[in-house]
Amino acid sequence: MGADLMGSAMVYLTFMSGGGALTAVALQYARRQPLANMYRLPVRVIVAGFFGVALYTVMLATAFGIVSVSDIGQINLLNYLWPVWMVVLGILLLGGRPNVVMAVAGILTGLVGVAVSRGFDLLAHPPSSLVPHALALAGGFFWALYVVLLRRWKIPDEKGGTAFHFATCSAMAGGIAAYMGHWSSMPPWSGAMVFWVVVGAVGPVGIAYSMYEISVKNGPVLIIASLAYFIPIGSSALIGLFFKETMNGGLIMGAVLIAIGAWLVRCASRDLGPAEERPAETGQ
């Protein structure tokens, strides 16, 4: 996968992010919340969302665009370490006191899962470039920090930053694509391409991110993070289906290890719910 695919990814990301922002606006309208609340955000939320949503998404798209096909699965699971970061940051910033031994065991199990996902025959052979791996890892950390800060700052539900941040992401991706000259070199759009861009904009970007933002403002963050570990199994299976080169003996096993890590973290944090929810319930 080379620069051409990265440029195409930025063009697609421009439309997906823009469509996701419009979807978030539509959801805000459906909830009968003032649309002005979507851009009248505290400065700290705008700054955190720039790193945790806009820059994170662009970094992840870039990582997928420049990595070799055989490493796509590992890049995907490196990104899905953000639940690990959420647990760590939740403990540090939200005052949680989980079972330390089980929490550490869950975190380490997740890390082992990422390592194993490269494939047993490639474990002793590092990738030719670690740039995409670093982008995916750092991006996941930014996203987790943003989510935990939303909870720590007690940002109200109606102050949803999804639309603002994805509009920023769309502008960033469009600018990168223009700088690289990929707007003019894009292949003609087909019906299937339009369909998947619209589906991605409305579903994973618009609805999913908006609902996730609402849930982390109200639900127990550490438990939400642990449940999110189960996403990599389905995601890894889909990647193996569409990118045969990345399927190896360690990919699914790595995703399963991450799910086991989720269970350990869930056990470690099972008593955090009431204490964690109490500040959010005050509405302050």
Topology, element by element:
Elements: H1 3-30, H2 43-66, H3 72-79, H4 82-93, H5 100-116, H6 131-152, H7 162-179, H8 182-185, H9 191-218, H10 221-227, H11 231-242, H12 251-268, H13 273-281
Helix pairs in contact: 1-2, 1-7, 1-9, 2-6, 2-7, 3-6, 3-11, 4-6, 4-10, 5-12, 6-9, 10-12, 11-12
Architecture overview:
With 284 residues, the chain is mostly helical. The protein has one domain (3-281). The chain has 13 helices and no strands. The protein has helices spanning 3-30, 43-66, 72-79, 82-93, 100-116, 131-152, 162-179, 182-185, 191-218, 221-227, 231-242, 251-268, 273-281. α4 (82-93) runs antiparallel to α10 (221-227). Residues 1-7 and 271-284 have low confidence and may be disordered.
Percentage of residues in DSSP E strands: under 5%
N to C succession of SSEs: HHHHHHHHHHHHH
Shape: globular
Count of extended strands: 0
Radius of gyration: 19 Å
Main sheet: strands, sense, barrel: none
Query: What count of structural domains?
Result: 1
Give a short summary of the structure.
It is built from 13 helices and no strands.
Give the tags.
0% strand; mainly alpha; single chain; 284 residues
